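Troubleshooting entry. Yesterday's outputs looked truncated, so today I'm pasting the complete records for two proteins to confirm everything comes through intact. If either block looks cut off, that's the bug. Protein one:
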Amino acid sequence: MNLTVAEENYIKAIFHLQQAEGNVSTNQLAASLHTKPASVTDMLKKLTNKNLLNYKPYQGVRLSKEGKKQALMIVRRHRLWEFFLVDKLQFGWDEVHEVAEELEHVSSKKLVEKLDSFLGHPKFDPHGDPIPDVHGNMVAIRQFNLIDIQPGTLVEVCSVGSQSAELLELLRHKNIGISTEMLIMKKFDFDHSVEIKIKNSQHINISQQLAQALFVKLV
């Protein structure tokens, strides 16, 4: 199916929003895409006519089976390109999102499959998000929000809740990345900050906001 860049951006935005929200409202989509609700309504009608959405006015929208399939392939391309940029071109993990936003629209199946093979069929992108395979399947891991982990627990960072350049820059400054192991030392009631110890480093304190942006698995 041939889709425009704008149509692909809408499909991907709906895919991400419905993971957390269920049905996605016009206003949510407009805020996510920084556009006007009237423009969103027009696009939703077009995508519904292409059988990519289940849409009823005033009730929100969800991707159809075909829409989800298309969204997963866009996400696949995006995350493979992010992996390529970090692993092969030595981009910082805080530099790749916008570049991958452009590259994800190159939809050649042959190119994508050769890229996947060249990279060794990675399961996760540089931010710890699972990469859909050619069939749209993703590896599922049991992860927890760092803010909910009790002191004395050893954990490993497996993903971040946002790919904002500001967050990733802060994590890099604190030497925290995907696969970083840390021991939870103490949680402070006053500001809900968390003291952690990273291997071969001193104890460091991270804010509640930062802790809520980190997802970990138990070691």
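Protein two, checking that the full record survives here as well:
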Amino acid sequence: MSDSVTVTSSQSWFSRLMDSIKSVLVGLALFVVAFPVLFWNEGRAVRTARSLEEGAGSVVSVPADQVNAGNEGKLVHLTGPVSTQGELTDPDFGVHAQGVKLVRHVDMYQWKQQEKSEKRKKLGGGEETVTTYTYSKDWSSEPIDSSSFQESNGHQNPGSFPVEASTEVADPVEVGAFTLSTEQVDQLNDGKDLPVTEAMLQEVPEPLGSQVKVSDGRFYMGENPASPQVGDVRISFQVVNPATVSLIGVQTGKSFAAYQAKAGDTILLVDEGTHTAPEMFQAAQSRNTVLTWIVRAGGFLMMFIGLLAVFKPISVFGDVIPLVGTMLGAGLGVFSFLLSFALSIFTIAVAWIFYRPILGIVLLALALGGLLWLVSLGRKKKRQRLALPIPPPPPAPVPA
């Protein structure tokens, strides 16, 4: 069975035109939704930034080795050693370790389908699509549905995993004299590999004990780890066990709750290692900035893709002559990009005026001032060109 299949399909100009007209509604929806997404994102970013600023101005650093009742209900910051009681044990494989979390990862060797398409326009507006489906085997942590493959015959995957991934969590998790809340424990995810050994294999209960072997620090379900077959499974483990954590939250007895800022957001921070309160708030502000730019880019892409779909019937109509359609498509693509960029900037500017009026107005005034300056500069140069003296005509030649 070949690991590559090529399929060629054709679509008439009329069919393409009808499809492009249908896509206009989807494009309009994307285009319209992009505006509230961009507007909401700026409000979210400002709310989060103000909440973090509020928290940074209210937090009190306290020692981790004692609980001071005088700090009850206050936003506190502390750094201390992590401790847990007893060991964590995987219920299926009997693997045990000291730590905050014991994480079981499961991968299965499966077929994967990759798709690559090439479109070719034909005279008259039709389009031919050549799609190549390539099949390869690789490890995946999720089941891959082979029934949806273009060529499923000879590329079948088992479907469900014989064992699933899981996570065992210690309770309680203590930092000095304090106990972390469930939400804080959830934020601790920096795991270190826990290699399995032949001694651990002896502790795996039946029937799994007779089905697995040790290979490269993992449990392996299959005949030969050096030559994996579709359906083979490997099981690995990680332990989350930071020596020290720094946290910020509202002291409630010996534990912590989220701080409700007046600006609107809640604050409950945990970072592995030793960090001061200003460092933790700065890191949170940086994460907020990154998220803001990601959503901005997403809103712009929604608007851009939406406009491309709205204008698509025009380029498809021009595809009756492929060169004309290609030129129309390129021009509309540039126009959609510039219009989406301008509208995105405008929406963000309006949002800033709404959420931060003074700064937003100043920025908009500067932008308009710069635009007016460019316009006036252009007009000045035009007047200078018009004011240039017209050179006299060359003298008439003297007859010989």
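Both blocks look complete. Sanity check on protein two: The chain has two domains: 4-48+291-385, 58-110+151-270.
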